Amino acid sequence: MNRHFCARGKCALLLTVVFACFGQSRLAMAGYVEEVEADEPFMWWRLDEPEGEDFAENSGDSGIEGGEYIDVELGVPGLIATEPNNTAARFDGEFALLSVVNGDGYNTGGPWDEKTVVLWFQADETDGDFEQSIYDQGGTTRGLNVFVYDVQVFVGAWNRAAGDGGGVASPWPSDNAGMEISTVSAPIEAGEIYQVALVMDGDLEGLEGTLTGYLNGVPIGTEDGIGGLFGHSNGGAIGGQVSQGAFPGKNSVAADAPDQAFAGVIDEVAMYNVALSAERIAAQYAAATGNVVGTPGDFNNDGILDASDIDMLSAEIRGGSNPPAFDLNDDNLVDFQDQRMWVDVLKNTYLGDANLDGEFNSSDFVRVFTAGEYEDGVDGNSTWEEGDWNADADFDSGDFVAAFTAAGYEQGTRGAAVVPEPSSPLLIVFGLTLLLLFGRRVR
Predict the structure, then answer these.
(1) Which of 132, 215, 332, 382 satisfies CB 3.0 to 4.6 Å to 388 for a cystine?
(2) What CATH number has the domain bearing residue 101?
């Protein structure tokens, strides 16, 4: 996990210094293939077959056939940075998929209290009208899936049959009315390369298990109330669906299958019959990218603390689910104090520094007013760079109150990474006056 902070941020500054000093050098690490092999995948689709090959190889330990390619473009550049000669598979978002037959231990047999799926993908688009299925096994009654929808990637699991195990470890989700699944999700961008992981650590005796999602080696959330996953005989697919599946609030139908296919590149799909630890997910990511996971505040794990990270934090603050990965001050809450920790300590700047150049000054006003979203009447449309400095997704007077209370205007760069005490009300009055004058001039 990327949460290594002591109360009130006393350890956060130390970690910031450590990463600043050593972030450019790579820690010694095993190769990507060696890291995956160490976790002993039951099924492992490397998707590196040459163009024209009809069948996929399963490099896992199960001995089950890897499945049949249908209209898949093979031999495209792979997504693993440390394996530059490796190739991957492109799916067209219509009829292309890898169809996987039933196999004992893969989807038949069971029941299982632990399952993990780890894969890499690059989506052509993220905001289509239908769910894009990257990985799917099972049907409407039981299964696992990974899919893209509404500018997010989801990991899902469900076991809806009340008769399984005498009704002890199912059905789940417990609030299921026949149309729900347990999911964890995180925002993504089209064209970006991601590692996503689904980790089911279930409970065969009750509903005390969990479903955890990871993105780029970092936990993105956990769902409780997970029981056991019982056998499901509908096979599986990569890049689409071969049978009916399940999504939040609905079941898919055969007629929707072309619409629910994935458009983009998929690489290195591995399935395990154990719940991999956060450390193992992170180790695989590090071996694939050369980036050590865990830089505090780098929520998208791209090696940079930038506006996309603070926008992700703001979204979690608004969401109210308090995911531990975003709890920067270790108080079991994700709130405005975590935003202050990110801005003041990790980025070492001030609220109001829209362009994140280390200073809060008139150039930041130019940037936010140029965006034209100040009190524009559109709810939830503003980012940090567009004036949302209090994490409510809007640019209004509340953001200036927050910024001028933090007392960073025209103070230059921050000399020491400490959280300042609130400033006097005079600064707030000055800030609002500046807003009126500057806003009128821009218009």
Answers:
(1) 382
(2) 2.60.120.200
Kindly state whether residues 337 and 393 are assigned to the same domain: yes
Q: Are residues 198 and 92 in the same domain?
A: yes
Residue-by-residue DSSP string for 127-148:
--SS-EEEEEEE-SSEEEEEEE
Residue 247 — φ and ψ, nearest 5°? -135, 165
Predicted local distance difference test score (pLDDT) of residue 329: 80
User: Hey, what amino acid is at 167?
Assistant: G
Quote the strand ranges of 227-372, DSSP E. Answer: 236-238, 246-247, 250-251, 263-272
Q: What percent of the chain has pLDDT over 70?
A: 82
- Identify residue 275 by its one-letter amino acid code: A
Q: Which domain holds residue 147?
A: 32-289
Q: Could you tell me if 149 and 197 lie in one domain?
A: yes
- 110 and 66 in a common domain: yes
Q: What total number of domains does the chain contain?
A: 2
Residues 53 and 200 in one domain: yes
- Considering 187-201, 299-313, 316-330, 424-438, the range whose residues carry the highest mean pLDDT is 187-201
**Structural domain contains residue 1:** no
pTM of the model: 0.66
3-state secondary structure of 299: coil
d(CA 114, CA 127): 31
> Is 2 domain-assigned?
no
Q: Is the dihedral of CA 200, 204, 205, 206 positive or negative?
A: positive
